[in-house]
Specification:
This protein folds into two domains: 95 residues, Alpha-Beta Plaits (2-Layer Sandwich), CATH 3.30.70; 111 residues, Alpha-Beta Plaits (2-Layer Sandwich). The protein is 35% helix and 34% strand. The protein contains six helices and eight strands; from the N terminus they run E-H-E-E-H-H-E-E-H-E-E-H-H-E.
């Protein structure tokens, strides 16, 4: 299984128009016929005016086959793409592999969540070491909130770890992070893991109307 994480940066003021087109045309055309739609969000904190969407495929060959089929769909190429492309400033794409032992899991409870997408970069060759420390402390971390997904980059900037978390709201996020910081095991992890990181990024996301993850 591979995951594709796409981030579109939209022209300021055009997000509502893009989301409406995605809902009314894009989602109806694409559905899950050309890859499974896992989730979609807009940025609340971090780089604004972004639309982040996550897809899954059996493998790269399936992705290529389905992308070629989508490119032949007239509704997609003639009715949808010409309307959304003028609304975009930039597109970014990552191909991700899930980390063994950490399944992609939708959050439970509550009608709607706030999500945090964190991207860490290590020096070359240090991803396995960081992941070893992180997986060891993950049971402690998940006492307070469950991880939604944990991946490493295969295509795009390499040596990155991408992890997605869900919270009931921003207050819940703040409470969880404060409690985790009091855990001795977490403090030990930070002492080992932080020196292996050269860059950390975080964005807070809210689910789009069409998102399967709420």
């Amino acid at each position: 299984m591979i995951y594709e994480l796409r981030t579109y940066t939209l022209i300021p003021g055009k997000q509502a128009e893009y989301l409406q087109l995605s809902r009314d045309i894009g989602r109806k055309v694409r559905g899950d016929k050309y890859g499974k739609f896992e989730g979609a969000w807009t940025t609340e904190f971090g780089t604004l005016n972004q639309y982040v969407h996550l897809w899954s495929f059996a493998d790269l060959n399936e992705r290529e086959r389905l992308r070629q089929a989508l490119a032949k769909d007239d509704a997609w190429t003639k009715e949808y793409l010409p309307k959304i492309r003028p609304l975009m400033l930039a597109q970014e794409n990552k191909i991700l592999y899930a980390v063994d032992g950490v399944p992609f899991t939708a959050p439970i409870g509550g009608d709607r969540h706030v999500y945090e997408l964190r991207t860490y970069r290590t020096p070359v060759g240090k991803v396995p070491e960081w992941l070893g420390h992180f997986k060891g402390v993950l049971p402690t971390r998940e006492k307070y909130s469950k991880i939604v997904g944990l991946w490493t980059t295969d295509i795009a900037q390499l040596n990155q770890i991408v992890h997605l978390w869900a919270y009931n709201d921003l207050n819940h996020r703040a409470e969880v992070r404060a409690k985790v910081m009091q855990e001795p095991a977490w403090k030990e992890f930070l002492a080992k893991g932080n020196p292996l990181l050269v860059e950390m990024q975080s964005i807070v996301l809210t689910p789009a109307e069409t998102s399967p993850l709420r």
